[in-house]
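Notes, p. 3: input format for complexes.
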Amino acid sequence: MPQNLRYKLLLEELRKAFPQPVSDPIHDAYFVYSISSALNKVDALKSQVPILGEPAESLSKEFERATERRVPEQATSPKEVIEKLAKYLEGMIVFGHPRSQVNVIGVSSIPSIVGAMLPTLYNPNLVWDENSQRLALAELEVTAMASALVGYDPGTAGGVFTFGGTGTELYAIRIGLEKALPGSMKEGVREDAVIFASRQSHYCKSSIASWLGLGSRNVVAIPSGRDNAIRMDLLEPAARKHVEAGGKIAGFIATMGTTDAFGLDDLEAMVALRDALVRDYHLAYRPHVHADAVIGWAWSVFNDYDFEGNPLGFRPRTVRALSGASRRISKLALADSLGIDFHKTGFCPYISSLFLSRDRQDLNLLSREPSLMPYLYQFGSYKPGIFTLETSRSGCGPMAALGSLELLGKEGFRALLGHLVEMAEALREQLEGHSATAVLNGENFGTVTLFRAYPGGVDTWTIVEKERSDPSFREKLLAHNEYNRQIYRHVHEEAMAGRGVMISLTENYRHTEYGEPMVALKSFITSPFVNEEGVELVVKNVLEAREKIAGQ
Ligand SMILES: *Cc1c(COP(=O)(O)O)cnc(C)c1O
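Output follows (552 residues plus pyridoxal-5'-phosphate):
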């Protein structure tokens, strides 16, 4: 065979590995078959254990061997490749399993999965509408839906999907920085400006401060109260002192649903404080207030729920928890901007994060040439690429979000979130009812429960308070930290053996008043499939673990 034909044969083979540009029913069926064969491979790994296939003892050996991998010399058939790819899911936690209460990781609905998959077929790029067409519409529509949901005016709000909740906060602080230090987009950050947030707020604020050139030392972490909300009585004097000394503020971050405990900051008070600072010190700018609502945003669906009539029929305890959260979440519209993770509490796959700005003009501050380029619709088109940090942006995020929002509607969201909260409340009821366990975040009303178990003879009515505040309890606290790690190991083993529920452990849900980390067992309910049986199993396994430890 002449040399110059070899590639053509290969090309012909390889073309079969692509979706056909013009419909060819036989090949289209082959494509669908390829997807379903991958799904079948993965589905075959499902079981009573909330893990796909066999859990690995440790992956470190495999990780070491990874350095030996090279690009194969020859092409491989799609069938073989798909088989190989499916294997990478072995050992994954099935977060949607009734026996999974691990972390704030979303469980994706089928329309959201299809929504995320469709753009991958045609590669729209949200950088501008020439390259994204109606996928840009999806971004605009989700922006409007989310705006209306939280109480922004969709006519004046703006939004953009970005690379995670971290990205939403980065957009916010960059805008806040431009407000505090006008011209710094161009001239660079030549002056300090601080970020105020609670100690329980997400650590991404520090990465952001570092990456923006502020330095993480410019993050001021204000202690939070027992309710895991920022202590306004400490934030106010700190902010006043800073401003009186001539300092600038790049932003206030109100955490609306902390990662570990679902603490909700008093956003209303924070905005009032910002307004007072502007008034009292005649500031030339309005410090930016961002709500990190990546977890809490979804509770907005209860803003107009009739808690009295309770048409969905939640239990009284659940209604109390939902309305308790709604008190603070219903104030979201007061924030200048907010972050939404559809992949956390929106039943969507990664990555689906929306940065929302109450005033879309604020996004202009990020434009590369603000005087020349209006934010939107230049020549009647959509060019978010003028201000986004990213250049290429995938359509997967907005399409996934649209899939879940359309599927569930407000009522579906209420039913699902309500159920998750109902299960969390059922767990708390049991933990509170037992003398050996104590709930730590009883004042937080989300789907996450932090709790500790104690050995026999400990008075769980008073121990938590003493551990939190009395330095003479340091030794006991540390011993009980270790005790709870042991409990966790037992509960985890049971889950792995198919006899229990996977929960998690946080090494430091918050510091004690004398500065020690407090370990907590953590149940984070995100799966629509979690049921009463799963909740009972958690308690049963924790109590069994106590017996086992006592018998050692
Ligand atoms: C998860 C989380 C973040 C970071 O979001 P990513 O989507 O993981 O980047 C920020 N803030 C809070 C409160 C979070 O829980």
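The longest strand covers residues 504-511.
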